[in-house]
Amino acid sequence: MRGSESFGNWLDERLGTRAVARALFARRLPRGLGWIYTLGSVSLFLFLMQAASGFLLATSYVPAPDQAFDSVRYISEEVKLGSFVRGLHVWGASAMVLAVSLHMLRTFLTGAYTYPRELTWVGGLFLLALVLAFGFTGYLLPWNQKAYWATQVGTRIAELVPFAGAALARLLRGGDELGAQTLTRFYAIHVLLLPALAGGLIAVHLFMVVKQGISAPPRRGDPTPWGGDPPAARHVARAHYQALKEEGQPFYPHVLVKDAIAALVVLGILYVLAWRFPPEIGEIADPTEASFNPRPEWYFLWLFQLLKYFPGRLEVVGAIVLPAIAALALIVLPFADRSRKRHPLDRRYASAAALAGVLAITGLTVAGARSPLISAYVPPPPAVATGGRIFRDLHCDSCHSIGGRGGMVGPDLALDAPARDALWMRAHFQSPTSVVPGSPMPAFGLLDDEIDAVIAYLDEVRGGGPPSDRAPRLYRRYCSECHALAGRGGDKGPNLDGIGSARTRSFLHRYIEDPKSLLTHSRMPVMLAPEGPLSHAQIEDIARYLATLREPSAAPRPAQEDSDEGS
Amino acid sequence: MTRAEDSAGVDGQRRRALATIFWSAVAVASAAIVAPLATYFATPLLRRRKLPRVRVLAVAELPPGEPQRVEFMLRRRDGWITETARRTAWVVRQADGGVTVFDPRCTHLGCAYHWHAASRQFLCPCHNGLYDIEGRVVGGPPPRPLDTYATAVEDGVLYVVPVPRQVS
């Protein structure tokens, strides 16, 4: 005890720590600061959480297109609690946008941006912009389809900026196209520039909060003396606040205890979210996959949706002009607001404007989230995607062809594979000559999970494995009334000859299960058996059966008519 | 920071209660944050390194008593990277039926040695290190017998873990 006391003295003599602690913690604040006043502290808490979890994520992340996705998957699947920590970071980002926005809304509604806190408000606006920039740059880093396409859209929006748009987009992307340079740029901005800027701004913001104190909660009908001009008015305002402080509470522990509890509650929510809903890994970014549905993160959905109402040349209005006007209005607000009242019910127009803004953004976000996905896109199962990458990385197609594309040394896998089961395939990958004496195929020494992935990929290529014997019967019973095959069957739906060359088993399965989920204007009904909807196994059987129906020619299927009418 | 007027009476009690709640919340939050983050960072300590195991050849392909130089592809994970390397080893089916796999580098300075069939010895060309068919030093400067790899035979197939182990 004596030791720590003397160490305290020792520090105090050199750094003046006691005075600093008194100024920070013993300072008095007006009474009546409710839970809504903890939002600023919660934001700060989240920022520190993001910094800590972000540092850890950076220890096993590579910002390069050929490694970024794998390193994120490594974090999620291999690192101890990796998925959880990534979950904390991803959900923490959303929580941060929410906390900072609500903090701003509270400040607006209570008129807390007025004298002498104008700069605190403006600094806070810039912090909100930084938080959004964090979100935008961080979203790309996993380098998955969602990330790639959302960033594609985001950088296209930058192109809409008048005059400087093209240059701005080039600067953001680091070139003409989204690629390696974009990733390193976004990474550097996300982990170096933005934290430095945010750290500095937060320090200034906090300094001003300590210096000016938290604005007293407004009381109905009680015109808090307004500062501004003339100097006498400012003097009255300061004296009034001073009086409120005198009869108020010390920051520690009376005010701080609420902040700590609020932060703990938010942490608890993040724990549940990160645990129950870990962020997805997705599929690796593929610039050639045209059917992906780009969607931004939820906090940019309102902007995404807004653009839909401004077609063609008017797009710049929705993307740039309106947001810029809103931002400008918020910046000049504390200098333009001459109202003497601060309670939200005493400032009907301001409160109505805030309500309208909140409703507009919420409405746009909901509309954006509900808007149907245009493209019929079914992501392949993760093992299939991994297997496909190994297949390409090892250049299997130098010797093997799939549906006519590839080398001729080995057998065509789409045609040949159905004859082999997983056991045979596994033994074959471990040692080709052990099952095919004299086979020229090299032993690649694939790891066990890699073999599983390649088998899954080849299964998918050949239609998910052989359908059972009852598949043709199921097809005749449920499909042939509308669809023709080899000249027999109805004509309400498209002819299905060779459908396996155009659609994967996963697609067909999902489509039969729920046609409208993939093609919104499909006329195909959800098929019903007498005892209810078709079972998963029945659908899978039909899907596999259809997936084996390949174009007779080995050549790639020519550009085919859009099968929008259903399959 | 304790102020005389606050440290006594009802006000003081309330203050102490609030301070207790505050520090409890700080402690819980800190533990809840530090524990997962520290676990994450300590992954290298917590995870056993999985040694890669490679299929080499069918034991039946080995002539007894004749060392064979085998080549194999070693595919292994380094974090999120999977790399393939071409590796070699010397495999001996010993007289007792057991299989020994030697690291292909001389224990002296790491040169690649070879089997000298006439003298039935492993000969390292750098400094004339000599080993017998069981890897024991029989001449030259090598400080210890040839390093070996862990092996396993399953269904007549030889697997090795190509990480050198010193034979004492």
What does this structure look like?
- The complex is a heterodimer of chains A (567) and B (168).
- Chain A is mainly α.
- Helix content of chain A is 59%, strand content 3%.
- Chain A is built from 23 helices and eight strands.
- In chain A, the strands form four sheets. A two-stranded antiparallel sheet of chain A has the order 1-2. In chain A, strands 3-4 form a two-stranded antiparallel ribbon. A two-stranded antiparallel sheet of chain A has the order 5-6.
- In chain A, β7 (528-529) and β8 form a beta hairpin.
- Chain A is elongated and about 95 Å long.
- Residues 554-567 of chain A have low confidence and may be disordered.
- Chain B has 168 residues and is an alpha+beta fold.
- Helices cover 22% and strands 37% of the residues of chain B.
- Chain B has helices spanning 9-41, 43-46, and strands at 54-58, 68-78, 81-93, 99-102, 114-116, 121-124, 129-131, 137-139, 148-154, 157-165.
- Chain B has a four-stranded antiparallel beta sheet, with no helix packed on it.
- The longest helix of chain B has 33 residues, at 9-41.
- The chains are: A mainly alpha (567), B alpha+beta (168).
- Chains A and B meet through α2, α3, α4, α5 and α11 of A and α1, β1, β2 and β3 of B.
